[in-house]
């Protein structure tokens, strides 16, 4: 079913690719990028702020004596519960997000999820001062609303992303995760030192609220209801997706096929494995740098941001390269997902082990940076794979995989808190070795189970069989069954 790629983009818009504002779908990508920027800046600010909230401060008393005080006297294990509490709520809603995004529109649910989290972030200082139980409750509710974001964005891509642009559109948007981390970590340290730990939550909460208003105004459910899109671009998107304007879809998800699919479960394991290493570092890296590497608070924020800066940059490269390899015919969709994902996991395994074995500031931070950065190539594997298997069920598939992938966010900080109770070097080595082992397991399982083809159980495959009256067989992914090359822009 392969077709030879054409020699130029064919969306009817007379503008080079870098003039993204000429194409409405790229405005959606930009706003999604900024949305994920907020998702992660709202999520990670506590990882840095908690260092300021619990560190010993020098206090000069009125009688001339000097003492040490903490804003909050929390043990390392209690800090682990505080950092993981977000994920107690987060794990409840990814699956639900896939359903409600199909019913109400992925753009609405995505916006409300992040907007509500921003408002709750503004309330975090009051919650912390009211007691740790109140803080835990607020963080849990934040997680509930953020849990819908990843499934919802796949629902957005299923309506806005031409198959030949999926890898890059998704990768650019997901790069917002790491841009948010890069900005939030050092900025949180600066804010905490300059204006107190409360300012961390106020600043990022306000930024999130501003984004929410812009998203709800500019981004629509689909090209058909966007009043600013050109007729040519609308027709290009709809044709590439095999849809007609005004067509109403009632999606009946093939649950038996989904739950018994080897490709789906390989994807779930891969997502879990990547998130274990990612969440371990996301929540614990500032504490690791302070306890094991002996960095000051403000410096921990800047150093913690470096790996995510590298990953954010490489996400643009990996998404572009993934599409290019497919459009040139060098690799099939399955090969791209397998080689990009498993190559990244294998490299992450090696560098996590080496960094933990050396455990010296320069080499260890370099190894962590390389390991996190190369994770960008995994995101051109598992993170886009849902759309290959069944575009119309992609939101639900992301909901399933993200539910399991949230477990590391709950378990990893707690385990790390108990393992590092004495803050010794050997304890931190154990944390890194566990992450490396999980990366390796994910690499092996995804290598043998991955598929980049449209699955026989998918809604799209069923529709084709009804039209063509052909026997069941795997069908090449929609991502390249209707190829539209972008080689001139490449």
Automatic annotation (TrEMBL):
* InterPro entries listed in its UniProt record: MFS, MFS_dom, MFS_Na/Anion_cotransporter, MFS_trans_sf
The record's Pfam families line, in alphabetical order, gives: MFS_1 (PF07690)
UniProt-listed PROSITE patterns: MFS (PS50850)
Q: Where in the cell is it found?
A: Basolateral cell membrane; Cytoplasmic vesicle, Secretory vesicle membrane; Cytoplasmic vesicle, Secretory vesicle, Synaptic vesicle membrane; Lysosome membrane
Q: Which domain of life is it from?
A: Eukaryota
| Organism of derivation | Anopheles minimus
Q: Is S-adenosyl-L-methionine given among the entry's keywords?
A: no
Write down what this protein is called. Answer: Sialin
